[in-house]
Specification:
Chains A, B: Pfam families: GFO_IDH_MocA, GFO_IDH_MocA_C. Chains A, B: GO terms for molecular function: nucleotide binding; oxidoreductase activity. Chains A, B: This is Gfo/Idh/MocA family oxidoreductase. Two copies of one chain form a homodimer. Chain A is α/β, with parallel strands linked by helices. The first copy, chain A, folds into two domains: about 35-165, NAD(P)-binding Rossmann-like Domain (Rossmann fold); about 170-315 and about 350-370, Dihydrodipicolinate Reductase, domain 2. In chain A, about 30% of the residues lie in helices and about 20% in strands. Chain A has ten helices and 15 strands. Chain A has helices at about 5-15, 50-55, 75-85, 120-125, 140-155, 170-180, 205-210, 215-230, 325-340, 345-365; strands at about 40-45, 65-70, 90, 110, 130-135, 160, 185-195, 235-240, 255-260, 270-275, 275-285, 290-295, 305, 315, 370. In chain A, the strands form two sheets. Chain A has a nine-stranded mixed beta sheet. Chain A has a six-stranded parallel beta sheet with strand order 3-2-1-4-5-6, sandwiched between helices. In chain A, helix 5 (about 140-155) links the parallel strand 5 (about 130-135) and strand 6 (about 160). Chain A is globular, with a radius of gyration of 20 Å. The interface of A and B includes residues 190, 262 and 272 of A.
């Protein structure tokens, strides 16, 4: 159960959103980056996200630098290393990966692999004495998540999950306004998240690699937003899945899934996830108005309205980094430098995966599933 | 079960949307009005809808004229009669209402009373030998609806429900484009309908008069749209209600209710109804695009987009009447003149009420409720 009074008091007393704690129930905004020392990152996986999205961000970072790459493709690794100034000793493959333990340049490993490999490469990094930033969704199962958390704890290393929206200015501003009561008492949350998965051979569509379909990959943004926008943890879910199994893209994983989240305060959450259309929308309704984002969790171009309808468009103050990825990379580096818990630690990833498991169970069993407090 | 192939063939063969039949499963567009004879209407109830919305529409009608009023307020009735040219013999109260049987001016009775009075005044009209147009929602219970249908059938009189959106150009155009396959195979329907009920003493908020809360009054637009946009009847529902019972407006009826509709073809419907915020939105997604209306079911100002996103805004061709109410009034008159079944007969109202009963049951019992075919 969420202690709403306590959180309300904390906010009222200090306006402090950066209070200690984890997860949506004690949501905390990232603090500004201290300049100075840069920690070294190893990027594991040179796919479209690791190579195309993450690696180009280091030039925007204050506390993070790229020092190593892990790839199964030696030529690609050489090419990327040359382009980004990664030294020869920073190039690894999946066989010699454990050798990162002997590379003092590497402080943090960022796991950008298919979901099924997250647990293994997180645990091996922790055993090699490295902190870990792991892409979302955290893992195919809550058991995997628990093992990842345990491994990092045992190694005395930090574990953070790549929830970039927690470092994105429009989402941060939406959360801030919700928390200070700008739309009154919260009542209803709605989010639709989807994109058109066009490539039938993408690993996202192979259950053994992805752990699931649209919910794991894109619907998780709606779920995570439901939690950070309301600041609560759901205590029951109901879900219905609709997938055209004759579509070659969806032989193994779900396309469309609608799910409802019941929150202890009475807020009702309703989410839709799909792999067959582009949709990116967040709505939070209170008894005095609404907060709306569309797109809400895009790489760029997000928009925010606060009030009633879409008359009052908001331009938020800058986020903690030059962009959401730089903010995320630097936050992890700062947590290591200052020995703080990341605002989106492994426990945050585990929470989403536990809820996702309940959502899948609800869809299978066609019944409401209560969640443990 | 809906015979999709049969409907598809009918549409492909003739482009004929005005085929015989009832309800969403055989949705039919109203045909153009023949000019000529005007049938006489008695308006029962001079409240905000009957007096403020319906009565001013007769001047736009081709086959309908106002000939009688039924009111419990003699002074108001006299004033309205004088303003609209209703003769003295056309003024009734609730005691002498059955005397309409002796007034040959009256062909059709339009029941604009609180919901709890719909059955009684429909049945008495039928027994008085008059056709009936009854406002939505049809009645507080399906048993009432069945009694209304039986009474009109026994009297050999027509019964139509006031689903104005079936005569509204934007909705008709949206339906037409969905039916001809412009957005491909239908996948998902979503609608949010709400308004801020400000007056705690309104009859809408008294359960004995309204039969229920936002779902009966405004959420029914989302439900009816789910049926006419998809052309299908749901075979299961799931619902969650959230009402602040400490709010003086909501001591007796629900405020917010979220409900899911499962359709036999696999289309998933998701609807939200509320009495505590303004919301009016309809989204229909197909595998080749989407149809969106916002507002979707307003008295005026509706907007329609077809394609992907909101790039392609559509201005529909004119509807069957000068406006949705004139179209509705004239449709009923034409059905009487031509001895046709209205496109939204009593059975259409009964269908919604049966689904609403299942939605309420689902919310009470926190479980999925299967609907009889």
């Amino acid at each position: 159960m969420v202690d709403l009074n306590r959180r309300g008091l904390v906010l009222a007393a200090g306006g402090a959103m950066a209070a200690a704690g984890i997860g949506a129930s004690s949501w905390a905004a990232p603090v500004a980056a201290p300049s100075g020392r840069k920690l070294g990152y190893a990027i594991v996986g040179l796919g479209s996200y690791g190579l195309g999205v993450i690696i180009p961000q280091f030039k925007h970072c204050q506390n993070s630098r790229l020092v190593a790459l892990v790839s199964g493709d030696p030529a690609k690794a050489q090419r990327v290393a040359a382009e980004y100034g990664v030294p020869e000793r920073g190039i690894y493959n999946y066989q010699n990966y454990d050798g990162i333990r002997d590379n003092p340049d590497i402080d943090i490993v960022y796991v950008c692999l298919p979901v099924s490999m997250h647990a293994e490469y997180t645990i091996r990094a922790a055993k090699a004495g490295k902190h870990v930033l792991c892409e979302k969704p955290m893992a195919p199962s809550s058991a995997d998540c628990e093992a990842m958390i345990a491994a990092c704890k045992q190694a005395g290393k930090k574990l953070m999950i790549g929830y970039r929206c927690h470092f994105e200015p429009y989402n941060l501003e939406a959360i801030r306004r919700a928390r200070v009561g700008e739309i009154g008492k919260l009542r209803y949350f709605r989010s639709e998240h989807g994109f058109t998965a066009n490539n039938p051979s993408a690993w996202r569509l192979k259950k053994a690699m992805s752990g699931g379909g649209s919910l794991m990959d894109i619907g998780i943004y709606a779920l995570n937003a439901a939690r950070y926008m309301t600041g609560e943890e759901p205590n029951a879910v109901y879900a219905t899945e609709r997938t055209d199994r004759s579509d070659p893209r969806f032989r193994e994983v779900e396309d469309m899934i609608e799910f409802e989240l019941e929150f202890p305060s009475g807020v009702l959450g309703s989410c839709m996830s799909m792999y067959s259309a582009n949709q990116n929308h967040i709505l939070l309704m209170g008894d005095k108005g609404r907060i709306e984002l569309e797109p809400g969790t895009g790489y760029r171009g997000n928009r925010l309205w606060v009030g009633n309808g879409r008359e009052n468009e908001i331009t938020p103050p800058p986020g903690p980094g030059a962009n959401q990825w730089a903010g995320q990379l630097d936050h992890m580096a700062q947590c290591v430098l200052q020995d703080r818990q990341p605002i989106v630690p492994g426990e945050e990833g585990l929470r989403d995966i536990r809820i996702i498991e309940a959502v899948y169970q609800s869809a299978r069993e066609k019944r409401r599933i209560a969640l443990r407090a």
